[in-house]
Design brief:
Strand content: under 5%
Helix content: over 70%
Order of helices and strands: HHHHHHHHHH
Number of domains: 1
Structural class: mainly alpha
Shape: globular
Largest sheet: none
Radius of gyration: 16 Å
Distance between the termini: 48 Å
């Protein structure tokens, strides 16, 4: 029964905004009020540079990775593991600690995939890297990797609950990136 507590705990861990904390600790403007207004690594890079963005990216990935790792150490069943994955993701998007205004979910999704299995995380990261090397567009790379993730989960993990969650997550990622997609379609995203 205690394993069900991992689901709200994952949401709370996901709700910790790395971008806001990093910017605060570095004496920078709140990323929700600067640049694109998105509390994520890409916006932190715009307003504060690569170091702050790298710390933010690491923090966002870690908050996806940690709850999944704990769930796996506790050997929970795949339904609970899938709910933990989804809860951490939704915590990042809609953080209770920061007025339910979170990031777009790419780095946290990477951490989630690494938590499920390092092979999945490496394949997803590799996809992002290859698409980025070809296109030089981070958002396009993230979207392609996200859309392919359910196929990777099916092939590598083959768990019905995880496949379902990793079908829903890219749909939400696409919705959260709708402005980026619009700019990609008109050639303005770079």
């Amino acid at each position: 029964m205690i394993e069900w507590l991992l689901v709200p705990a994952a949401y709370l861990i996901g709700s910790v905004s790395s971008a806001i904390i990093v910017c605060y600790l570095m004496g920078l403007d709140d990323p929700r009020e600067s640049g694109s207004g998105n509390p994520g690594a890409t916006n932190v890079m715009r307003i504060a540079g690569k170091k702050a963005a790298a710390i933010t990216l690491f923090g966002d990935a870690l908050k996806g990775f940690i709850p999944v790792l704990i769930a796996k150490i506790m050997a929970v069943d795949s339904l609970i593991l899938s709910l933990v994955v989804f809860a951490a993701f939704m915590g990042h998007l809609y953080p209770v600690f920061f007025g339910f205004k979170g990031g777009k979910g790419v780095a946290t999704t990477l951490g989630l995939t690494l938590g499920v299995t390092w092979v999945l995380g490496v394949v997803v990261s590799g996809t992002w890297f290859i698409i980025y090397k070809i296109s030089k567009i981070s958002s396009l790379s993230a979207l392609v990797a996200a859309v392919l993730t359910p196929l990777y989960v099916w092939y590598i993990v083959d768990d019905q609950y995880l496949i379902a969650v990793f079908i829903v997550i890219p749909v939400i990622l696409l919705w959260r990136h709708r402005d980026n997609i619009q700019r990609l379609l008109v050639g303005e995203e770079g």
